[in-house]
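Q: Focus on the chain.
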Amino acid sequence: MRVFIVATKAVHRKVLFDRVEAMGHDVVGMARALFEVERRMERLDPPDAFLTDHMLPDGFGSAIAEIVPSTPILAILPRRMELTEDERLLYAGVIQRPFDPMTLMASLEAMSLWTETGSDHNFGDS
């Protein structure tokens, strides 16, 4: 699976990069804001999925759907943050920081299955 990571902090991008690669998937791009996603997507084929912070410096992670429609987006939230029901519908799933390695791996595996089957259900919810 080809994954694009969008996280504001470099340490979070590094953790996600290491976990995605360890699972045998390819990280095809990384960014820290929506404008960087938009710029990079001009030169890249769409990834199979995005892992993104919900809150980015220049908007919300769900806005990626406007840049790359039909690509599943897995939201990353701080532990104590909750999404509204409407916000949850914008994402294929949700994982929370700090990253629990077992939960993160399970969520990424579920995302892999989700993209392969085209399922429309959420996964990785905490």
